[in-house]
Records
---
Amino acid sequence: MFRKNKYLILAFGFWLLAISLSAFSQVSSLAPTLIGSTGGFGTATINSTTATISYSVGEPMVTTVTSPSVTLTQGFQQPTPTALFSVTVTATPSATICMGKSTTLNANSSSLALPLTYTWSPTTGLNNPNISNPIASPSITTTYTVNVKDAILNAGTATITITVNTPSVIISSTVTSAVCPGSSITLSTINSGVTSYTWAPTGQTTSSITVAPTTSTTYSVTVKNSTGCTATARDSITVTPTPTITVSGNTTICRGSSTTLSANSTATIYNWNPGNLTTAIISAQPTSSTNYTVTGTLNGCMGITTVSVTVNPAPTVSISGSVSICLGNHATLASSSGVNYSWSTVPVQTTQSISDNPSTTTTYSVTVANSFGCTATATHTVNVSSITPQITGGNTTICSGNTTTLTASGGTSYTWITSPSQTTASITVAPTTTTSYSVFVTNSIGCSGMATATVNVNSSLLSSISANSTTLCPGTNTSITISASGGTTYSWSTGQTTTSIIVSPLFPFGPHTYSVAISNGSCTADTSITITVLTPPNISISTTPSTPTICSGDAITLTGGGGTFYFWGAAYGSPPSIVVYPTVTSTYTVIGQNVNSNSCYNFASVNVTVNSITAIVGNNITICPGFTAQLSATAGGDTTGLSYNWYNSSDSLIHSSNNPYFSVNPNVTTFYLVSATNGLSCNSANDTVWVFVDANNNCAIHIYNGITPNGDGKNDTWYIDGIQSFPDNVVDIFNRWGEKVWEGAHYDNDKGSDHVIWKGHNQSGQPLPAGTYYYVIDINGKRFASGWVELTR
C-alpha cells in the first residue's frame, strides 16, 4: 500500500514539477519551488553542467537536462522550458580606444542554467569570438553584438560600440624634389583636433618646423589629440651632394701673358668670376694678381672654390740713344736696366748698350728679362740721312733781260753762293751772261751737300700777259679770258697753245695762278697771272621751332641767314623768312647774296621732318549683356613714347595709357573712339569701334580658366562675363589644401577700389603664388558653378 501510494505520490510530484518548471519558464531569474505529496518541498540547483532537482522527503528525484529536451530518470518526459534572462556588455578599461590599442569586452548574463555559450559578431579585431571576455582591437569604430545561450537553450543579446579615436596627420613640404645640403625646408602638418606634436629626429614640438639637412633625412611627426591618441606621418627629404671642385693650371704668370684654368668636378654647369665665363676650362689674362672663383652646379646644387693667379710684373723697357745719323756714322743705343738683354742686331748682341753702323734707316728692338723671368720688348728707329741736294725749276736758258727762278731741294736750310749770299730755297736771277749758281744744302740732322746749276743767256724776248678780270665768284658760271703776246708760240700751264685761254676756276677759294711760256723761236720767257676766286657768303637757314621736326599739318618758319638778299624759289619768292606746311618730309633750299662784301652768291638747305602717326582700333565686337569686350588699338608711324586715348560716344576721355588694350562692359550698344599721341605730341586721327550688346546671342555666364596678373593689361584680373546680371552672388577661391584664400560678394568685374574682382591676391591684398586654385560661385544662395582656375605669374 505504501509503495502504491509512493508511486502515486511520485506521479503527483512530477506533475507538480511540470507546473513548477512551467512557472520557472515565465520568470527568468527565479529558482523553481517543488511541492511534494507529503507536504515537503524541493529546490532546483543549477550548475554549469546539469540541472539537478533534489527532494527533501523520501527518495530523491533527479532529472538530467539535455538539449533539446528534459528527460526524467523515471522515464517521464516534460516539454523543454524557455526561461527569459538579461545580458549586459561592458568594456575594460574603456569603450573608447586609440588606433592600435585594445580593450576587453565583458558579457554578463542573469541565467542560472549553466553552462552558457557566447557568440560575438563581427569577429573582426577579436582574439576569440566564443568567450565571455574577448580582447577587442578594432582598427575603426565597431559595434559588437554578443548572443548568450544557457544550458536550457534560453538566449539573450547585447551590443557595445568600441570607438577608435585616431588623429590624422599629413606632412606638407615646401620642396617636391631633391635639395642641396643646408637648404632651408619647411615641413608643415595638415591635421585636425591635434593638441601636441613631436618631430623626429629634431625633437621640436610645433605644428611646422624649418630644417636644413646636410644629408638625406627622413622626418617624422607624432601627433596627439585631446583623448591621448597618437598618429605618425613621415616625409623623406633627399639631399643631393654638393660637387667638389678642384682647379688645375699655371697660377703664376707674367703681366700680359695668359693661363688656362681647368675646373675638375662632376658638375655640369660652371660659372667663373671675374669674367662670367660658363665653360669648365677658361683662358685668363689678368693684369694684376687676381682671385678666380668657379661655381660648379650639379642637379641644382653648387660647389665653389677659389684659385689665386699671381701676376708678376713685366719689365718696363725703353731704348735711348741716336735718333738720326748721317750716312757712314755710328748709332749708339742703350736699354733700360734688366737682367738679360737680346738685341735684334746681326749677330745678336747681349749687352745693355750697343754701337752699330746702319746703311739705311733701321728699327732696332731689344728684349729684356727681369728677375721674375718676365720679358718685354722695346723698339727704336735710327734714321740714316743720305742727303742728295739738287737744283730744279726755272729755265736754264733765258733771253737777256729775263729772269729765271732756281729752286734747291733735299734739305732744310740752304746757302747760295751769290753776292750777297741768299738762304732761301728758291732764288730769282737775271744774268746777262751764262752763269753757274751753287748752293749748300743742310738737312734737319746736320748732314750737308752742294749742288750747281748753269743758266744760259741768249738774245732778248719781249713778252706780256693780261686778263679781262682778275676776280670771280664761284657758282655763277663766270669765265675769264687770259691773253699772252710777244712771241710766236705759246705753251700754257693748262696745256693749251693758243694766244688766249678762257678759265673758270671755282675751288678752292683764293688765288689761282696761270703761267705761259712764250717763245719767238730763239728765246723763251715764262710769265704768269693770278686769278682770285672770291669767298661766297656763309648762307644758313634757321627754323622756328628750332628743331626742324613737326607733326603732320603743322607750320614751320624758315629764316635765311648770312646774306642781305635771299631767293627761295618761284613758289616763295625772296623774303628773308617763309612759312611752310609740309605734309611729308621735305628739303627746302635758299640762295643768298651778301652785297656788303663781294656780292657772291651761295645757298643753304634744311630738311624738315614731318612726323605722322595713325591709330586703328579694329573690327566691331558683339557681346552679351554684362560681358566684357577687349578693345585693341594698332598704331603706325613714329610710335616712340606712344600713348592711347579712349573716348566714349559723348567724346569724353575715359582711359589713357601706353597699353593698347582697354576693356569695356557697356549695358547697351555703344561706340568708342581711340587716338594715339607719340612722344613728340603728334596726334593721330580718331578711329571708331562699335560694341554691340546682344541679349539673344546665346548669352550666359562665361567663366575663364586662367588669370595672368603681370601688369600687361591682359588677363590681369579674373573676369566672369555676365555675372553682373546676377548681383546676389558670392565667389570663393580655395588653394590646393582646401583653405579659402579669397572671398567676394556681389562680384561685378569692376577693377575700381570700391568694386569686387579677384586680382590673384589673398583677402589681405597680398599676391598669391602661381598655381591651380578651386573656385565656387553661389548665385541667390545656391551653388551655380565650381571648378579650377590657373594663376600664372
---
Amino acid sequence: MTYRTDSTLWRTSLGIENLWNPKMHIDRLNTSLIAFEKNASLLAGEIARDLPDFTVHDVTHLSALWEMGSLIAGDQIQLNPVEAFVFGGSILLHDLGMAAAAYVEGTDNLKSGVEWQDTIELVYREYMKKIPTDEERASPPDHITKSAIEYRLRSLHAIHAEKLLETKWESKIGNTYQLLEDIELLDHFGEVIGRIAASHWWDIEKCGRELDIILSSPVSFPPDWTVDVLKIACLLRAADVAHIDNRRAPGFLWALRNPNEDAQLHWNFQNKLSRPIINNGLLTYNSTRAFTDREMGAWWLAFDNLNMIDSELRKIELMLNETNREPFQAKGVKGVEHPDRLSKHVRVSGWLPVNANVHVSNLPKLVKQLGGEALYGKNSIVPLRELIQNACDAVEARRRIEGRDENWGSVYIRVGEESNGDTWIEIEDNGIGMTEHVLTNKLLDFGTSYWGSSAMIDEHPGLLSKGYSSIGKFGIGFFSTFMLSDNVKITSRSIRKGPEETNSLIFGSGLANRPILIKNKPAQQFKDAGTKVRIYCDVDNLIDEMFEDFVFNKNEEFALSNLEKLHFVCRRVAPCVNTDLYVQKDKTEEKIVTANDWTQMTADKILLRLSGFSEANCPMDLLEHINTISSFFTDIRDNNGKLVGRACITPDNYKFDLGILVCGGLYVSRMHHICGVFIGEISNASRLVGVPTIDEANLKKWVSNQSRLHQDLMSSSTPDDIYVYKKIAQIICCLGGDTGDLPICETLTGYLSYNQVREMDWTDTVHLINSFRKSTCILEDDTLNPIFIDSSYYHILEDWPYKWSEHRDLSLRSLVIKAVSESWNQPFMEVIEYSGIDKGIDTGVWLRGSDVYGKAVDIHSEVLKKLIS
C-alpha cells in the first residue's frame, strides 16, 4: 500500500532512502514483511464480517499506521531495518484478533469457560437489564450469543494477537498456512512482535514495566541492528490511537454497512475528519465538512476522542522522557483544551459547541455531601449499614469463587481505643478483599459500583456467571463513612494475593486531601484475605446516636450499657444477613446474627431480634406483646417456594417497632401494621425506601390467611374488641386480601362483615357517614339506617402497596359500596356512576343531628343510589 511505502519510517529503513547495509538483509526483511502483509490483509478483511458495525480495520488501516507513525515520530526518530520489520509486524498483528477466523478451532472456543459465562451474564445484565435464569444462561437466544461473541472478540483481540504468530491454519486439502513464513525471523521476533501488538491495549505504565527492553538482532544480521522494544510499542499505540480520519469511515461503505445507532456517531465523525498534520508539535485534525446541529453528538464524540489522543500522546512523551529516550515530534492534539478552539478547524454549522460541561469546583465536598447527609439525612446508622453491606457482598463473592458453603464467612464489628486515647469502630470481613488497584481506584470511583463491572470480571473471572449479585448497586455507600469521621483507614488483602500484598489506604483529613497508601509490615499483614475499615471517632457518642435513631419511642428510657446498645443497633441494622455477624469489645465477643438463621428461627425469637433487644434486657410489655402476636406469624413465599418474608398483621405497633423491610438482610425501613420481615428491593440510592419483592397473588394469599387466623380468634372476643378487628380488616383490605367475617363497617345496631352487608335488604338510598360520627352524634331522622364507614387508607410503606390516590378501591369505604351494590344485584361501577360519587366534587347531603351535649350539628353523608330499573 502507498501509505506504507510513502512513509518516512519505511523509506529510511526498508525503502528507497535507506542507508543501511548489507542490502541482502533488507531485501529479505522486505520480502518477508510483504508476504506477512498479504496474509494479514486476508485475515483483517474478515473483521468486517464479524464486527460489521465497527469502522474500517482492514489493510488500509494497517498501512496507514506507517504514515501516522511517521507523522507522530518526526524526522528525529529513525528505525533500523530490523526495528522497521518488528514495527510493521506489530502493525499487521495488532487488530487481527477481532476476526473470528483468527481462532483456528472456531468461535466455539470463545463460548467456553467461565469467561464466556461471564460475558453472557454481562450482556444480559447490561443490554437486557435483567439477571438471566439458569435456562437463559444455558441456552441464550441468538442475539445474546451474537452480542457476546462480538464483546469477546473485542475484549480478547489484543490478548489473542500475542499468540497469532504461533497459529497455523490448515485447509481441507491439507495445506498449512501461517502469517509469518520466515522461520528464523519468526523464532527470533515472533514473541516480541506479539507482545508489542498486544501492548496497544495495555495501560502505558504496564508497557514501561514489561517492554523496556533492547533486543538483539538474529545472528545472521548486523549486531548493531538492535530493537528498542518500548520505542516500537509507544510508536504503535500512538499511531493506532491517532488514526481516526475518513479512511476509517468511507461514506459509501458507511451507507452499505448501515451500522447500529451507537456506531453511527463513530462513523459520522470519522467520515468528516481529514488525516492530521503537524502544527507546532501538535497533531491538527480538520473536518472536510462542517458538523450540523443534527450532528452535535458526533462532534462531541470527536472532541472526546481527540482529547483521549492528546492524553495518550502526553503519557507517551512522559514515558519516553523518563526512560531517557528521544521523544516523538507530536506532543498532543491542537484545540482540545476548549471546544471553541477545536471548532475553528473541526468546523460546525448552525450551532456553537459551548463548554457547558458540569464543573465541580469542590469535588471532595460534593462527594461527602452526596454520599453523606444530603443523600441519607442525619442518620448515623447509615455508615454502619453500608459497611456491613460491603462486607457481606465481599463474603458472598468469595463463597461463589471458592465454592464455599452458603453460610461460610463472618463479619466483625469492633470498638476499641488507641494508646493515645483515640477511640474507633471497625468493620472487618473475610471476603475476597481488594488488590492495590481496586483499593486505590475502584473503591474511590464515586457513583460506579465495582460489583458486576468489567473490572470485576477481569479480576475475578467466573464470579458473575456463578449468579453473583451484590447488595450494593450505586458505588456510593463507602463514602457515607465520612459522615462519621475524616480519619478513616482501610486495610485489605485480595484472595489473589499473598500476605505481603496487604495494603492500607489512610484518610487523615477526609476527602479534602489525597489519602496515602502503605504496604503493611509483616506484623500487620493479613494471614487470610479480607478487608477492615476502621473509623476514628467518639465511639460512645456514636453508639448513643445510632441507638436513638432506632428507638421508636423516644420518651422511654432504657438502662442499657453502650455495648448492649451496640448489640441492639446491629440486630436492627442486619437482622437477616447471610453472614455470621459478631460484635467485639476488648475481650468480649458475641455472635449477634448467625448466617441465614432468620429463615429457621421461631416467631418469638425473630420478633425479639427485630426489636433490637436481647431476652435479658427486653422490656416486659414488649415480651408480652411478642408472645401475643407470635401465633399469627407465618411464612411468605413466592411462586418458586422461596421465602420472601415472615410476618403477621397487627392492628397497632406504634409502641413496638417490629416490622422491617430488608434488602440483602439489611434494614431499609420500618413497616406499619405488620410485625416481622419482608424481603424487598430498594427504590433509590439512599437505600431508605423500598418495596417488597412479593408478587400480588402471593401477597393476597398470605393476607387472606392472616384474615382467617384473626377471624378464628374473633369469635371468642368481647364486643369492645370488635373495633380492633375492623382495623385489621382495613389493613387486609388495603393489601388486597379477603376480609371474610371481619367487620368492615358499623350501623346503628352494630358491626357488619362484607357478607352481612351484602345480605342486608337495603333501601333504594343508603347514607354513608364517617365512622367517627357514630360515637359523637345522633341523627335527627331515626328512620334512616346509615352505614358508618372508614374511608382512610393504610400505608404499610411510603409507596406500598399502592398510592392511595390511585387505588381508592382498597379502602373499607369501597368494599362497603361493593357489598351494597351486590345486595342490590347491580354492578359496582354503575352504582358509583349513578350515585355521582368519586367525581372529585361533593355530591353528598347534610343530615340534621345533635352531638353528645344535645347541640344541633350537620352531619355529612355520601348517598348511594340504587339504579332505577
